[in-house]
## 1
Amino acid sequence: MKNTFLWLLLIVAAIVSCTSGDVIGSRQLSPEQERLEKINMIDSTSLCEILHLDSIEGYELLNSLTADAWMLIDDSTGCIISEKNADEPRPMASITKMMTCLLALENGQMGDTIEITQDVYIAKDSRVKLGDKYTMRNLIDEMMLVSDNDAAYALAKHLGGDTLRFYDMMNEKAAYLGMTNTHFANPNGVPNLNNYSTASDLVRLSRYSMRDSLFAAIVGTTEKDIHLLDGRHMPCRNTNALLTTYEGCLGIKTGFTRQAGNCLASAATRNGVTLYLVLLNSRSMSSRFKESAILLDYGFNVMKAYPR
């Protein structure tokens, strides 16, 4: 009887130990760790092993694309659907602003007042003017919707104390996210040989950033009146045409410089499938949207054929 009782105690103890371990294990995996694990989920082989990708509708159009580099990935599986020169470092233009936006949302107070001062006013490709005052949230919207370069500089100075410290913050975050072929040297993507990334690294940044609900809301906004603190307002329309022309588009960010060409980071969802795409150095402003739509269409066709 005593032996039976001891065995029962041991069994109960083992069950409690296992259960406790599971609870502890689940607690150890924080939401942030789950977020990082998700963007680390990248599979370059499964689709090729299961499907004849060249037989999927839309494949025949890929050779006609003018973009120099891209990566298209299914978010839930991490499967790479299509890529070209995806690990080749190159200029990223205003896609840089995704990192500036992310850091502002993570480190800033949305109600802070930010003034456009002389040291952040370069008066190029910008709508903010010297002396304008915004809340941080409105300045972030201004930066992301119309790709305002001076708005990015003002946010960088406010968040970092000075812009050089902010660049350190950008590179520290890039390292944290595993963006191993990326270096930031400004907050907005204006030409700089030390400001570069890859399509694969920018897909990683896109997937991470879009898991911030406010980031996703900002880049998914088609148009908005941006209010200044003096009572004026500035109508802004998002530079990302796919938000109104592509079914299921969620964002994310356009970019252009002569060095980088026409760039676009995109996310779209249809029938429970979410795809991420970064396309770099397309021939023209219109072709970056057309070519992104071709790739996304192909991606949804591939995932429709993918057994789940």
## 2
Amino acid sequence: MKKILLSLMLLAATTMTAGAQEIYTEVKRMAQTNADNSNADPLVRKINKFKVDALNYMAIKMREQMPDSTAELLDKEALSLHIFINNYTNALVANAQQPAAHVQRVIRVFMDASYSNPLFNDDDKEVVLSYFNDGNNMTRFSLDTDWRRAVLAAEEAMKKLNN
């Protein structure tokens, strides 16, 4: 358990120093590197696989549905995804000693924030909810998420949960 918590803290401590229009590429590069690292904790690899899949999904959908959108929007969403995942792992670490029911409420806060804030309103629920519906996955989030809104929603819900 300590190894998993340490891995989550290392993942959360990852920082980015990329400039505008490079954030998406840097977040994806870091996530792909961590997902491919056979020496990394399996949990860290799975979290990063979700990031890669979410970033790929986002880029494809933006090209399809928002062809006039700027690279800045993609960068903002990628950075927000990174922040969302860091906030999630930090919340899990911070609440690790709490009863299981409380930890499940923390997980539900982030799941709900992801699900309730779609970016594309994609009808392909099988793809969009592939991680969300997988009970064996730690990153049970919707791929179709406006990550900027989801970060704010999760922060607000966590404040209510902790009060």
